[in-house]
């Protein structure tokens, strides 16, 4: 039988939990409850996405709701706790319908916070936790690779794909690539010969000067 239908047990449970919580340290909402609410609830219940017309982002939206989301002093009658927990070990909680459910420890913290009066720090607004956690590359400490040359990284990727770099291009190919990239036109025969024969310093026009600088 579903224990939630045994309404006569609720007063007994409330008294028991009151004695238990009375001997324990009060819950710090900001440090203990806020993190898992932001991580597991705010994605669907925020000012922009109010699934089920529920917003968990602020005290005003939680306690000002017509729904009985949080009833201070009574976790077992609060919709947030009922929806995020389950009596049946074979049945997952109703919420969240996607993503991680509350762990037993988190559910216990939530229940204790509500039973202790659901104190919400003045002005505190919850925001959805970033999807980029501590494993994100930007949070990793700087490290110096064994091989710092860019070619080393390129060769590693090519090897993974069973490929290898082309042979170094000849000077005639280089001058053609540079001029096509810079001007969209092929080099003149004089420019090709000057570059191939190491006489690129004689290229005094603007076009030749840019090529010289790029290929230096």
Commentary on this structure:
It contains nine helices and no strands. The protein folds into two domains: about 5-130, no CATH class; about 140-215, no CATH class. The model is unreliable at about 200-205 (pLDDT under 50). The chain has about 220 residues and is mainly α.
Secondary-structure topology with pairs:
Blueprint: H1 10-22, H2 29-40, H3 59-63, H4 79-84, H5 104-115, H6 150-160, H7 171-183, H8 189-196, H9 206-215
Shape category: elongated
- Helical fraction: 40-55%
- What does the largest sheet look like? none
* Distinct helical segment count: 9
Radius of gyration from the alpha-carbon trace, in angstroms = 33 Å
Q: What string gives the helices and strands in order?
A: HHHHHHHHH
* Poorly predicted parts: 202-207
Features:
single chain; 216 residues; mainly alpha; 2 domains; 42% helix
């Amino acid at each position: 039988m579903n224990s939630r239908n045994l309404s006569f047990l609720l007063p007994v449970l409330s008294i028991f939990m009151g004695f238990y919580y009375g001997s324990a340290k009060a819950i710090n909402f900001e440090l203990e409850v806020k993190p898992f609410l932001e991580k597991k609830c705010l994605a669907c219940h925020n000012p922009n996405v109010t699934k089920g017309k529920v917003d968990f982002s602020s005290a005003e939206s939680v306690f000002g709701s017509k729904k009985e989301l949080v009833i201070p002093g009574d976790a077992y009658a609060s919709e947030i706790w009922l929806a995020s927990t389950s009596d049946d070990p074979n049945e997952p909680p109703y919420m969240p319908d996607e993503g991680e459910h509350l762990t037993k420890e988190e559910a216990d913290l939530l229940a204790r916070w509500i039973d202790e009066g659901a104190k919400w720090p003045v002005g505190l607004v919850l925001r959805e936790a970033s999807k980029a956690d501590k494993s994100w590359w930007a949070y990793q400490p700087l490290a110096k690779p064994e091989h710092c040359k860019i070619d080393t990284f390129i060769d590693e990727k090519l090897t993974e794909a069973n490929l290898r770099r082309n042979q170094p291009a000849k000077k005639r190919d280089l001058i053609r690539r540079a001029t096509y990239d810079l001007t969209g036109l092929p080099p003149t025969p004089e420019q090709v010969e000057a570059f191939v024969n190491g006489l690129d310093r004689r290229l005094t026009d603007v076009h030749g000067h840019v090529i010289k600088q790029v290929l230096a």
